[in-house]
């Protein structure tokens, strides 16, 4: 009889350990950091097809599942952050792009360059990229005002990126987190800038 009790307690310990590990993994994935795989080349050369990345979810205030409530944030998204968000045209898909402008700012693409509030965006992260005038929100000579509580985002590979030039703005409530690290493949491990 004592052996049966030991077997039950050992099985119970295994089950408890597995349940705790699953709960902990779900908590981390929901509120702290989540892994994503890059499916397309829309963010080349920053991110390549097949790159696996980690996204910091708590920095902008992780969303509590099945609610509109967010946890307290450490900071708001900043210009040129690489952000992961729920695609505005298909809520079942996640997208990744570079944040260019915030609510209240104006954006214009002119001669392949980005102008925010009339000033050329001259940062090394975007300086070497030619931004094509495409879509309803990216026409040459058209100045777009970003609505409050929204963001204007662009892919680093302007020629093959479906981004704010085509479908408009990302509501701040759709932002999931900040892409921070490429962890796979091994030869591409690096922080994301």
Give a brief description:
With 193 residues, this protein is of the alpha+beta class. It has three helices and twelve strands, in the order αβββββββαββαβββ. It is elongated.
What's the shape? elongated
The CATH architecture term of the largest domain is Ribbon
Low-pLDDT residue intervals, each spanning 5 or more residues: none
Specify the CATH class of the largest domain.
Mainly Beta
Number of helices: 3
CATH topology (fold) name of the largest domain: Umud Fragment, subunit A
* Strand fraction: 25-35%
Q: Describe the largest sheet.
A: 8 strands, antiparallel
Give the C-alpha Rg.
21 Å
Mean pLDDT: 92
* SS content category: alpha+beta
Characterize the structure shown.
It is a single chain. The protein has 193 residues and is an alpha+beta fold. It folds into two domains: 1-31; 33-191, Ribbon (Umud Fragment, subunit A), CATH 2.10.109.10. It contains three helices and twelve strands. Strands 1, 2, 3, 4, 9, 10, 11 and 12 form an eight-stranded antiparallel beta sheet that branches. Strands 7-6-5-8 form a four-stranded antiparallel beta sheet, with no helix packed on it. The model has no long low-confidence stretch (mean pLDDT 92).
């Amino acid at each position: 009889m004592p052996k049966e009790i030991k077997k039950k307690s050992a099985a119970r310990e295994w089950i408890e350990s597995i349940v705790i590990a699953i709960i902990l993994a779900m908590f981390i994935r929901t509120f702290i950091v989540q892994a994503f795989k890059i499916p397309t080349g829309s963010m080349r050369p920053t991110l390549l097809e097949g790159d696996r990345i980690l996204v910091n979810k708590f920095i902008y205030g992780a969303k509590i599942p099945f609610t509109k409530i967010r946890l307290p944030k450490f900071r708001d998204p900043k210009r040129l952050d690489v952000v992961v968000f729920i695609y505005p045209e298909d809520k079942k898909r996640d997208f990744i792009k570079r944040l260019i402008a915030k609510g209240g700012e104006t954006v214009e693409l002119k001669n392949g360059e980005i102008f925010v509030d009339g000033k050329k965006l001259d940062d090394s992260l975007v300086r070497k990229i030619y931004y094509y005038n495409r879509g309803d929100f990216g026409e040459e000579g058209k100045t777009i005002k970003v609505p409050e509580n929204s963001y204007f985002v662009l892919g680093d590979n302007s020629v093959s990126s479906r981004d704010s030039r085509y479908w408009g703005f990302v509501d701040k409530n759709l932002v999931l987190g900040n892409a921070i690290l490429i962890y796979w493949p091994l030869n591409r491990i690096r922080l994301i800038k």
